[in-house]
Amino acid sequence: MKKTISFLFSALAFFACTSTASAPDAKGARLYLLVGAYSDGTTSGISVYDFNTLTGDFEYLNDIKGVINPSYLVVSPDEQFIYSVNETSDGAVSAFRFDKPSAAFRFLNTQPTLGADPCFIHINKEKTFIVTANYSGGSLSVFPLNEDGTIKPIAQSIRMNVAAEEVKSPVSHIHTVAFSPDETWLLATDLGKDKIYKFNIQPGASETFLIQDKAKTTDLEPGSGPRHLAFHPNGKYIYSINELAGTVAAFEQVNGQLSAIQYIASDTTSGTRKKGSADIHISADGKFLYASNRLKADGIAIFSINPENGKLTSAGYQKTGIHPRNFILSPNGKFLLCANRDSNNIQVFAVNPETGLLQDTGKIIQTNKPVCLKWVGK
Questions:
Q1: Are 134 and 141 in contact (CB under 8 A)?
Q2: Which strands make up the sheet holding 92-99, listed edge to edge?
Q3: Which of 12, 25, 174, 186 is the most buried if burial means most Cβ atoms within 10 Å?
Q4: What letter would DSSP give residue 322?
């Protein structure tokens, strides 16, 4: 987890750049690509590009500086607001207004998370609250939202190390929070304790949004280190990328009760498991699963998904730049974009819809320490 000694905002200007992209267009083909990065405030914190999902062409449009480590972003359902974590030892969340015509950001406000190193953030469909996963703090933070997009003070701080004997070892490291498709419950991964927690969501709550369902806590194989989650489109299966073991765990789920059906190596470049797996996503058609791996063999593992039982079969492995963390699939399934933090770039790969395999297009977005990618409609 990257830390900084302070959390500061410089004067955040509301400004715009004019797009001159000349690539072919079609209805819905052009999207905004938002890029969150590790930044000390002097480099771009959040950048925006015009991306053509038919050709893979792109153009830089705008950015906002003065934001400390916006290492994970979430876009509000109406796409008017962007929320970011500020991954520092102090820990905070920030809100921005995003103006589509000008592709410009306007800083709204920030709130402390009361948990160190927030590394993931999610928003509910009704735009009434956001939840952060605080890695070093071992906690979840819940914030109500105002109608103007600003963040209210924290309403819930849920620490998973709650008793003296639990603090000793292992220590909780909450890495991801994920709403169920119907938003009646939420899952949180604990990389430190090899657990996935379930929380029930209280509709219309003003203070207690989440209540832990302790009977449905899932224990993973010791040493797994669950990091991110992916829901299969059919709703029956959930997959966990496990950072410490370098595996993907497949679960069958019923109302948030997870039952493990498979563990499979994510770094498939050798016969031994590697530490450093990072992100996980499933194609929109539910046929393929992708998982990024760092530290040993930088690349993306590709798996086919058995529609009958949800199990994975290795389909291939695509080498990438250095330290691939977050990646994203285009909505039309034609491209996969991979953020390589230590190569300071984003690679554009073409996706074979029949095999799921990736082909390097040679198109590269050069940008400083990218670690989060999100789409916004134009």
A1: yes
A2: 73-75, 81-86, 92-99, 104-112
A3: 174
A4: S
